[in-house]
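Dear colleague,

Following up on yesterday's call, I've attached the two folding results inline so they're easy to grep. Please treat them as preliminary; we haven't cross-checked anything against experimental data yet. The first protein's sequence and structure tokens come first.
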Amino acid sequence: MTSAGAPAHPHSDSGFARARRDFRAWRRTRPFWAGLLVLLAAAPIIYFPYFNLSLGALSVAMSTTAGAGSLVIGLTLIVLGGLLWFQPIIRFFAGCVAVFLGVLSLPISNFGGFFVGTLLAAGGGLLALAWGPVDGGGHPEDIPDGAEGPSAAVSRAGGQGSE
């Protein structure tokens, strides 16, 4: 018997490995971590205004008058997180709004979910602003002469600017 046609790793194309590879390919084409942080930011912003703590017979209610505002901010952050995953073209708008809502939740929602929601929303929004799609296969050799920016011209001139 010969093993010339047998794959090197017979179980490498299992269902789990294929799903993981497909998820990784999907995740790399969009601001995944930004969307995840924005989604996670909604949890403390929504939860803490409606939080009730029971210590035996003592009940501590964190309900505030800003419960409706916290719910609106949290639901909007959930929508923005989903949009970052499924519509990455609006990453700039979603990032700006997520940062704005994170800061807005400070006075409205118990210090933005005790600063956790604010930090997650601001971090996710800033990641969305910083993310950019990867250009496929662009190599520096493929750029025609004169098409590069001024920094390339300065480096070619030996660090001397155009004078």
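Below is the second protein, in the same order (sequence, then structure):
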Amino acid sequence: MALKDYNNKRKFDETTEPKGTTKKSEDQLIFVVQRHAASRLHYDFRLEMEGVLKSWAVPKGPSLNPDDKRLAMMVEDHPYDYKDFEGNIPEGNYGAGQVEVWDSGTYEPLDDTSKLSDEKELLKELKSGSLKFILHGKKLKGEFALVKMKNAENNAWLLIKHKDKFAEEEYNAEENIAKNSQVTKFLEEKKSLKNSKKTS
């Protein structure tokens, strides 16, 4: 079962994260990027396939600069309903910290000549270790690729922006966050708590 790992890692009587059930979008496939302040700040990049969200942890966050090849570590599948999850994961739980949605939208395979359905084409590419797709997000737009690294750890991939009209020369995900970001607030509180412990 695709969500077995997800369910096994979570204590649903303590966390408000959604329980692992499969669901599908009615029309177009969706993607979501979540900013996650856990033991380290990172971004979770998720693509809907087979009723779940295929997920990668991207330490530096996605980029619109084609020269940036972002490391993306594939993690366990997440349930479809995780696309809307924002909030705090309590201490003592897997991924403890603060989560917020950084970007979301729909996506489709780049290959429009395939006779397969969008989802089947993407699953085939996922299996082959080279996914090429178009994102229709608020921040992330245009062509991207996820490429599995050879001779590296099994779950190590690279998230790369293709050169197109949405590409930018300089891009930092951290400079494109909401002013009222709860993750930033969480990080600041954590920092001031650490500093007050040092001085006490």
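For the second protein, one point worth flagging: Strands lie at 30-37, 41-49, 52-58, 69-79, 87-89, 97-109, 130-137, 141-148, 156-161.

Best wishes,
A.L.
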